[in-house]
Amino acid sequence: MIRPLARFATSALLSTVLCSASNPALAAGFDDVDPFIGTGGEGHTFPGAVAPFGMIQLSPDTDTTCEIRDCYDHAAGYRYDDPTIQGFSHTHFSGSGHSDLGDVLVMPVAGNEVALEPGDATKPGSGYRSRFDHIHEEAEPGYYSVRLTDARVLAEMTAGTRVGVHRYTFPNEEAAHLVLDLRSSLYNYPGKILWSSLRLHPDGTVTGARQTRGWAPDRHLYFAMRFSAPVKSHAFVNTEEDVAYRGFQGPGRDSDAVAQRQGRALVGRLDFGRLDAPLEVRVAVSTVDEAGAIRNLESEPGTFDAVRADTRGKWETALSAVEIEASDDMRTNLYTALYHSMIAPSVSGDADGQYRGPDNAVHRADGFTFRSTFSLWDTFRAQHPLLTLLQPDTVNRDIIRSLLASQEQSPFGILPIWQFHGQETWTMIGYHAVPVIADAYLKGVRGFDEDAALRAMVQSASYAPYGGLGDYMKLGYVPIDEEPEAASKTVEYAYDDWTIARMAEKMGRTRVADRFYDRSRNWRNSFDDKTGFVRARDSKGNFREPFDPTAINYGYDYTEGNAWQYSWFVPHDQDALFQAMGGDEAAVEKLDRMFEYDMTGIDYSHAEDIAGLIGQYIHGNEPSHHVAYLYNHAGAPWKTQERLAEIVDSQYAPTPEGLSGNDDLGQMSAWLFFTGLGFYPVTPGSLQYVIGRPFVERAVLNLPNGNRFTIRTEGLGAEKPYIGSVTLNGEPLERTYLRHGEIVQGGELVFTMQAEPNREWGTSTEARPYSMSE
User: Fold this and answer.
1) Which of 98, 107, 336, 425 has its CA 20 to 30 A from that of 257?
2) Is the pTM here over 0.85, yes or no?
3) What is the residue range of 738's domain?
């Protein structure tokens, strides 16, 4: 979406040309996307240019000089309420709860004087950073532009899959310069940049590399850049004393280079003189080497306008997976949610198939494109099921094969936990690549070695040194005196084990299935009948005391949550959980208490990821995401409908502050997308979607197999928040779930809404969603 007041004559004219060349039906969804949603508040999204699942995320960084304790707000580089832009870098996370990347920062400068330091945001003119105004800022999928007030430059960005293209329009009669800063990085604490290099080649190509120690411990990134005008002069500066370092595995000195420099704090100045036309800068990156970056650069030729048009076409096609009729705000929210759900897992392999794996060695993908950026603790819940539904070919060709390749190349022989650029961060808990693979396989996705997949899943679930798994396999739970966050780990491992059992059973591997079905019941070992909560036990079997179900502390019994959130995480066996709580009525009463909890005097400001509170329900973090749907499992679906209305109305908006918590690589967005249609994958691996209530008048899923699944709502409106009845293909639907096969074969789902709860629909035990113990 191009924001209403942010239109320059040049870019507005180009937008008109691009739109006129596009299919109007495809452009409809494209034009509803607003990349600024989530760039303020807690969303941590970026507004810059990216192709679907692109390797390049070319976006402005408003502050990379923050103190470590303050960098959380700038995890995506850009924050909407910041007054200045420091520059434009080429790699970013979309909505993560941690920061890194921000590689190869470029900033245009006009005039005779060029500062090589960013300067102070509160002191205009103190460095190369520039003030800007949102009135002169635009963003749409694959395109970003801003007028830099101090630099007096119009900066435009677009991106292909592996190439980012800048276009800078400098003032007439002013010399044009670029600052190329390799010192800049997100979460840039002292010592993060281990080594870097810059070189200018005789043909005017600039290449370089850097090695960083950040969220990933030893990450290598290489780049290549070319310009539409010749570099007339330059300076490569090391702003710290030269230090010898032998650990860098990049290329040595290039005898053919016009100039080169190595060090830990490199910044370059590139001078172009006065220009008669805008300067275009093409940049590609590689995790392999500089030659790979050059090959990537050459793999996507074309001018700025050509790359922008091509990426627009890719986004139009991706977003055309759904046709939505809804209020303007809801259309914007849902199409933006779909857009945010298709940024990661991003391409991490070169055009020739080479990539750097978790062993930090170079490998070559055979028949697939290596992808990384796996925020699996977040995305296994809804974002991966969404991709499995809308892009199953991508899932089987790239995502699953990338996960399996990573397992083969892992020094520990396990599937990724939280990986980017092929490097493991060991962030979060569980082995949640397992449900991603199992859910896709059970839904019919093929094209990968399923025997190797099952072996990788079992091996990941059996690696004793990881996260207390040795004790879990021996005791049936993770003991808190041996491992932090033990209560959360026990229930998450149990769910992952169930998905292994489901896949093994489908494959006819009975012994494996029986073993992991047995392990999937381990959640019961952490459930305290006395208090009715999932709790941490010590190695002697005692529940840890004292116990406060509202307490949230890092390294405590739970992961980014407390007993209120984690006591509902038994998605594969909700019926047994509810019976342990005292039955349906007791479960419903406890769910109500969670949403209606009096938070007076409770302060979670010390916990960064705790946002979007409705009582003890915390929508800004993933452990709560399935909870509103659980009333269906207890025979009270009208309460699910009430809670969903409350969550959607309070947690999402078409504004920069429109995400109540980190988007987490698309999970917050995927939750809204599914919920907006009227159903949600509470239990990936069950082949079911639990019905909530719709927020659209009509939506059509244009499925990859050529079928169309239509959702239609009669009587949609705030005054009619409850489902009166449901039909599927013209027949009454009395159950509160849809089967995956019913969606992919196409058809029509019709909701009729009403003002009062229907306390009869979907209440019988036969109408309830899957539970292992039913």
Assistant:
1) 107
2) yes
3) 339-344+612-774
